[in-house]
Amino acid sequence: xxxxxxxxxxxxxxxxxxxxxxxxxxxxxxxxxxxxxxxxxxxxxxxxxxxxxxxxxxxxxxxxxxxxxxxxxxxxxxxxxxxxxxxxxxxxxxxxxxxxxxxxxxxxxxxxxxxxxxxxxxxxxxxxxxxxxxxxxxxxxxxxxxxxxxxxxxxxxxxxxxxxxxxxxxxxxxxxxxxxxxxxxxxxxxxxxxxxxxxxxxxxxxxxxxxxxxxxxxxxxxxxxxxxxxxxxxxxxxxxxxxxxxxxxxxxxxxxxxxxxxxxxxxxxxxxxxxxxxxxxxxxxxxxxxxxxxxxxxxxxxxxxxxxxxxxxxxxxxxx
Length: 320
Fold this sequence. Notes:
The protein is mostly helical. Helices cover about 75% and strands about 0% of the residues. It has helices at about 15-40, 45-60, 60-85, 90, 95-105, 115-120, 125-150, 155-180, 185-190, 200-215, 220-235, 250-265, 265-285, 290-320.
């Protein structure tokens, strides 16, 4: 940023406020869940037991310090990711969307995938539900990340998840996103003049108008897309800023969460896989991504997961 005189300024602290909010939200959710769980089981001293549980998390203080330090460095990594994402068109101008569209059609029998999702989930309420699931990804990601930060029962699994988590953001969200520099359906016309996805965006806007007319929630995706567009035009480096379609980080992280959770508890893991499928569908349905963005993300995430697991197991054997 300094030596190349980039128009987008680098910041190491972009996500500090978000991390504080995430810690507060996850901590509050855990306290509420734990307290009512103790009440349901009719514990005679629920508050006392809750404080004991809390003390086991906080003490020894070295563990708490390690947790906070790890979060700070993850925050730095997120800031780096957002900066890299913002400067993608400077390093490698957008230009492969047409090729991705053709591959998408080839894989789906000559049909644009969004036509399939909107045929199956044609109702505005279905679109709203997919949007709600897509937004919930953010909160679930933080919850799962915090879980593996303090999870001690399977140390290899814990390390495998955390290292893969960081590498997925760097490699999928940084390296591959730069190589496959693309904008996605919702920005294609704005950035290239190609109006092939205008019917999709028109349908989403019509559904949004209907939902608002009946007093329902609106489609948050449209507001978020507009917000990212404003950031792009202003060349700002803020939370979530930057336009990049290939690969899909929503799908990548959702699938990574499934891989990790399944190793902890299979039933919840199956639900996590179902959630990852919903995220893949939502990414297409809401105009964020091409279908192949998600397919590529799943393959690359699994490869990273297997590779990191193999390295950790091998390093443990050598150390023993």
